[in-house]
Every structure is written in structure tokens, then in C-alpha cells.
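Researcher: Re-running this chain for the archive, since the previous output was lost when a drive failed. Same request as before.
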Amino acid sequence: MRITDFEELIRQLPYEHQAFDVNHKNWKDVGQSEIINEIFRDQKSVSISRFELFHSTWDIKSFVIKLLMWGYPTKGRGNNIKNLLIPENFELLISKLSNAIQKKYLTNDEVKELMNGVEGLGLSTLTKILYFNRVIIEKYPALIFDQRVINSINSDTKFLDNDIERFKKLNYTNAIDHYLYYLSYVDYLSRSMNVLPDQIEMFLFMFGTTLKEPEGDGRDWGDLD
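Model: Regenerated C-alpha cells:
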């Protein structure tokens, strides 16, 4: 089974429509409450889409909060979100991001440097931020590289596309060292299928760990005749 086998499906994926519902009650015990309350505006829940995030980057602080809500509607596991929203950590993050986003073009080493010193910031969150700000890494548009995408593209799973074996030892711990190659690989796939890199990333997120090659002739499904 190959990623390219699903070319027609990938081409139809409405990536900008991908949205998640966020309940206010899950975000009442963290920092940056003023921004959070402004986002909810007395509503019990809000729905945040990729399209909205692409058009919210003009206000970096509000954007980061919305992105965290979109990426981790229930605040995820552990204390990363809580730590990231502590005032001194949040201000450091905003300062570093503002400089990076203004440049628009980063090296992979600069991406690694962005993660240093900001408590609670991991590759999953950082790549989301860079992606929605349309930052270029070396010569490739930034893409989201989170645990589900990593699990999907790791060649120990199921896809047999050309050169995907380069991801054989990929895991979240060493993912930053594979990030640039991931971007170049998705760029290669997108060109070969005439689809958007965003659509491939969404396919990997949604379907990459839930597909299985059909086996047998179907006769073991019971006596249907």
C-alpha cells in the first residue's frame, strides 16, 4: 500500500475546513485568561478551523492561543500547555516567534534553536505555528509534524512509497532531525500526485494509522450465499 494509491482521495481533502470544537471549561485553569476569554466571548465552546488560523496570524498572541486550542482542544497530556502559558514562558515564546516569523525563511538549525529555552514548546506545536505563518524552511513550506503524522510516515507501519524507508527509525524524540527531509519528501509526493502538501499532511493525520491493505478474497466474512 502506498500513499500515492490514494491520490484521488488526497486531492479532495478540504484541509482549510478541518476544525475542532473547544470547550471553555477546559481552558479556565491556565494562564493568559484575558485572551482566552476574548476568544470565547461568553460562549461555552468555539469551533476553530485551519482557515481561521491562517487568517489570525496578524495578532500573534491571540493566534498562538487559538492554535493551541485547535491542536489540543482538551489541553493535551501533561503540563506542556499550562507551562507554555505561564507569563514569562509565553512572553519568551512570542518574542522568539515574532523574530522568526518576520524573517519568513529559516534554516533547519534555526528551527531547532526556536525550541530551546521555552518550557512546554515541542516540535508538534512549533511546526503548527510555522505552518500557519507560511514560513519557509530552507526552500520548503513548513508543515505540521506531530505524533500522528510521525506514526503514519514511519516505514515500519504500512506505506511502501519510494524512499519512505528513510523514515524507518523515525520517532518523536528524533523527529527534528528528520523534519527537513519530511518537508522535501512531502513536496516530492505532492508534485508527483499534483496535490497540495497540506492535503498530504492531512491525509497522514486522518488516515495514516487507520488503513490496512485488504487481505483474502472476502469469503471469511460468513456464509453470504
